[in-house]
């Protein structure tokens, strides 16, 4: 990357009061190592343990969602363009914001936005009820997750989940998700 | 029946099940690459064991963090034990948590809500 492009990228990232930004192939070891770095950093900030665990757990759910989705498309023989996932942890005023972005297939967009709209409309009690309902469902054969990640993030968030879905081409949308803690 | 022991890693917990003593321990953090693969031997072992368990079975859980797919696995483990309890076996759970970590307490309480077996939550 050219020097001025790097400068612009760094400047953009600095404005977000960034703790960590990763874009590239999400392997389990990358998720784990970055997670450790985030926790070490937050422990040095001397914030409450429960706040550290909220940031860490939202980060893990987002990163694992990106990785699992990518792996599931690969398993179907429809690999997603390489390295299109990103996770960012930043600080706004006195709270943390964990965001992720990744390409999703156009066919998955209606289901994803319906789920997010539903979660955005629920209060804490409603979110807990949806969480309990989902957690009692039998696991789907071959599924890598339990379908609890988004609900769990919504429960930890202090504001409704923010998201966007932007068409990239005929096949893919870029899905971004922002969780305010 | 053989004991089951899986050593802890940085993202998966220690599993230490002693069938004769009826002592089952799960300790550490749980966010493995694939939770269902990780817990499959645990489910298989328990399914066998709960047919003829020790006179009293205690599950000691000391999990400071679980990702959501591990939470689902732990719900399934607790449901298996709860089933044995409902059939008259003596089965109980002791959930240990670090008293600095409110989230660990919230999580333990939510697990306890869904089962009828004796469930103690102990701060350390």
TrEMBL record, chain A:
InterPro entries: DUF6272. It comes from the Bacteria. This is FIST domain-containing protein. It comes from Azospirillum melinis.
